[in-house]
Amino acid sequence: DVQLVESGGGLVQPGASLTLSCAASGLAFSTYAMTWIRQAPGKGFEWVSVINAEGRSWYTNSVKGRFAVSRDNDKNMVYLQMDNLKPEDTAVYYCRRGALIGVVSPDDSAPRGQGTRVTVSS
Questions:
Q1: How many helices (H) and strands (E) does the chain have?
Q2: Vertex 76: Cα angle to 30 and 20 (nearest 5)
Q3: For residue 47, what are the contacts with CB-CB under 8 A and spacing of at least 6?
Q4: Alpha-carbon distance 70 to 108, whole Å?
């Protein structure tokens, strides 16, 4: 079975940095794109970033220049470095198997982890 386990969330002040990690198992990790999505309190899922198997990445406009996604295929890990965090980044962040760009369907059934909570507040 596919398992994705996120970690690294926390409570930080605006302007701070966090690095989220996602440990993957049960899949041929190096062959999959990996996607980060988030869900803010009371809102639907939002696509954040995707990194393809070759390491190319894409970002939603609101995080461009502040977030950086990376992967380590030897360790089956994907990371999301988040700098200059803003209150609007407050959400539960999930890593998801496979490529997704843009709208996250409410019916999206691709494997994802349990999420890690990021709270940005002064």
A1: 0, 10
A2: 120
A3: 35, 37, 60, 100, 101, 102, 103, 104
A4: 23
Tokens representing residue 109 in the block: 């059934």
- Can you tell me which residue has the tokens 């899949």? 27
Pick from 111, 117, 101, 116: which is nearest to 25 by CA? 111
Structure token pair of residue 80: 């999301």
Measured CA to CA, the distance from residue 63 to residue 40 in angstroms comes to 14
User: Tell me: the pLDDT tens digits for 31-76?
Assistant: 999 999 999 999 999 999 999 999 999 999 999 999 999 999 999 9
